[in-house]
């Protein structure tokens, strides 16, 4: 049970100022771990994309980098959902972050010693993707146990803002660090993830919900069945899924930065982070004014603007250095 804020206390001020979720210490630990972890992941993505394209010069290899990280999501999502429902969420989350920290440190070591190869990178990224496949559902499922229901929507909004803010800052930081070498980025990523894991372990709330129903084949796909029988939820998820799958222009940014716009690693970092500036602004706006009506129409409008923006970016060559 979450304690109520007393009158005139700092926690009461947080609640009235749109910071209700931060009145709870466990959420503060979680939120800080979330923003550090998201920052680390986007730094890693930026460094890997630049390193792979510099190493091989083949656009197809950039596609493979994304493929080996997304395939575990599709193959393991039933098991990941079960883990989020039936295992202690704090431990699952912390272990997943630790595994990614080890992967980042391995990247750093192989890069420093000069023995890193593209197949090695794909193997490590597959482990990264597997850890992320278990982390993502657990990371979402743990939030209701950290705050009371009255602060849940506020927690989700701040959660989204943390993710978007990290996705703005991470690529820019990585772009600057890449000029000194990708190994510096991977080392920093490893440290950030280790700190995020420690913060996650500090969560004290009971995040494990005991489920008495036996595990069965049907329970593995219970989440899919839940979504399938709710057309509005299925439509929203499908729209977002296909927009991301068919509009993944960010995978091609190393090519644009290096060959088309010729802006170098720093410019590449700015390109990767710039499109998230609007997303962070939107998330911050929704912490104060959550959507109450016409959510479907607003989602369609957002996806339409997203697609139009990708087309415009695809035609851009005018910021090339002369």
UniProtKB/TrEMBL annotation:
According to its record, how does it sit in the membrane? Multi-pass membrane protein
Q: Which GO terms describe its cellular component?
A: plasma membrane
Q: Which Gene3D superfamilies match?
A: MFS general substrate transporter like domains
* Alphabetically ordered keywords of this record: Cell membrane, Membrane, Transmembrane, Transmembrane helix, Transport
User: What transmembrane ranges does the database entry give?
Assistant: 31-50, 62-80, 92-121, 141-162, 183-203, 209-228, 233-257, 269-287, 299-318
Q: Which domain of life is it from?
A: Bacteria
User: Is Transmembrane included in the keywords of this UniProt record?
Assistant: yes
A Pfam family annotated for this chain is: MFS_3
Q: Tell me, in one coarse class, where this protein mainly resides.
A: membrane
Location in the cell: Cell membrane
Name of protein: Major facilitator superfamily (MFS) profile domain-containing protein
- Record organism: Entotheonella factor
